[in-house]
Amino acid sequence: MNLLIIITESFRALRLNRLRTGLTMLGMIIGVAAVVLMLSIGQGAQANINNTIASMGSHLLIVVPGATSSGGLRFGIGSVKTLTAADAQAIAELPSVEATAPVVSGIAQFSYGANNWSTSISGVTPDYFTVSNWVIERGDIFSEADVRSATRVAVLGKITAENLFGTEDPIGKTLRISNRPFLVVGVLAAKGQSLSGRDQDDNVLIPLTTAQRQVLGNQFPGSINLMLVQAKSAEMMEEAEQEITRLLRQRHRITGKMENDFTVRNLTALAAVASTTAKIMAWMLGAIASISLLVGGIGIMNIMLVSVTERTREIGIRMAIGASQRAILTQFLLEALMICILGGITGVALGITCAWAISQIADMPVVITLSMIGLAFTFVSIIGVFFGFYPAKKAASLKPVEALRYE
Amino acid sequence: MSGTNIAPNQPLIRVENLCKAYNLDHPENQSACHQVLFNINLEIYPGEFIAIMGQSGSGKSTLMNILGCLDTPTAGSYWLAGRNVATFSGDELARVRNRNIGFVFQGFNLLKRMTALDNVAIPLLYAGMNRSESRKQALSLLQQTGLGQFTRHYPNQLSGGQQQRVAISRALVNQPQLILADEPTGNLDTQTSQEIMALFAQLNRDRDITIILVTHEDDIAAYANRLIRLKDGHIVQDEMRSPTTV
Q1: Which of residues 283-322 of A touch B (CB under 8 A)?
Q2: Which residues of chain A neighbour B128 with C-beta distances below 8 Å?
Q3: How do residues A140-191 score in pLDDT, each as one tens digit?
Q4: Residue A147: what are its φ and ψ, rounded to 5°?
Q5: What was the ipTM of the complex prediction?
Q6: How far is residue A315's CA from residue A174's CA, in Å, rounded to a whole number?
């Protein structure tokens, strides 16, 4: 008997028991939909993180002051102002380092006309924009000359610009920062949340020197809060880390067993961890969802066993008129497989619909890939064969006489 | 049908020292065996019309099942059309059942969810024929057995006699040399029984098909030209006789 005929025979058998077939299929549908949904949500989250990482800038090290001790008291990271802009300049000369971007930051009050807004302000150099991958949407960034002469110019983050200026074009307007007038020269393109969940677009960037001298108040001269260091390449990051440590220990006169008064962190490594976490999360969600597929598979096996018992006489008749064991096995296996594959198709459609609905309603990023659908189908087929085989084998190994005698 | 064309003087069936025992609950325990057939020896020639008689429990159904390759003997050999099928595997036996043997049962054993036409066509499908060709052949056979207008009917829409005619058509569709009929009239009234028996006699006469019939009714057995009587697993009578003319 050729395969096409066996397929139509199996189809006929499934159609005859529509309710039962439908209910069994429902197990598969829900399972597949859950897998597709979970994977798409998980991969959406992962894609989101990857975007954030890309927006962060590549092969970055971050140097922060702190972890220092004074007379037995130990201070946390960033609590002591030990890093200076001069340190940043020295680090920039290191062979493994591409660029450095010293940053001072704080909170300030901004006002424009009747609007006012309080948010973080950072004093930076022009290198900061390239090192941390900022894209200018309108206007321009400030220059080295602005930093040297501590000009009152500002580049606004997207959110800040919207909060202060609304629909107005901020370029060329003057806003007040801590009551000093600043000229807006540029607006940054949106970047979204950082890995720590902070909105990176709600900020104002001004020249480093202006921030140090005029906005953030009386600080230890030239001190900075942190510094971003871009290594020449991903491979050189460790080398850069060592060179920076050596140089800073030397510059800060730290010798022997004395603790460093700074910390070098590898942001790329942190990002990789976050990305891996998201990936594990995505697969874990998928794995949990696939348990429901497994349960669906057990349901199929159950129903197929009932069906084989109910149709024992039919099997006997088929054997008497010449059905080989192989033909019987194929017929029942195909019935199980067909439930799985039809359930799989419906499940994928349902899963995609749900994923789309979630992305619309909850504003969550979802990613649906072809490989995901392929995976669902592979899984479903494996389940069909795995759980369909035992009942089919049972049907095929019935003895013709006994099957014919069955009432 | 390779290997099935045998000379008329060669037996179609030769059974030698055939035994059948059922190991009921303890297959390993010989004393728990229940032997049903004892050293059956039998030769059946092409074109014979045989009635096997005996009381229930005499082993006639078991013998029938073995002759029909639905069951295998415990000991002895069974040569069908020159081949010892006692040594055949399950799938080889399925092929023999499909090509060489047609079955007619007391309870008709049609597939309930299929039309008469499809029921007749299935043996052809199992033989590897395509759907349309098999339906064409099944249709012509149903027309020959007088069921041309019932092809689209399901078994439960047909009378007992009609169902048995469908079953006979199904048995004939692969052109077997041998038809095994196990109490084919057991569920039919006298009038219909006679019609069905007349059909068997006609097939035997016109197409030279060997027919083996199991029955316990003398007037049904009277259609056969050879009578084999079984008792407690032994052949106690095997005689030729002139059949009732139809």
Answers
A1: 313-314, 316-322
A2: 1-2
A3: 899 989 988 989 999 999 888 888 888 888 899 899 988 889 999 999 988 8
A4: -65, -45
A5: 0.91
A6: 89
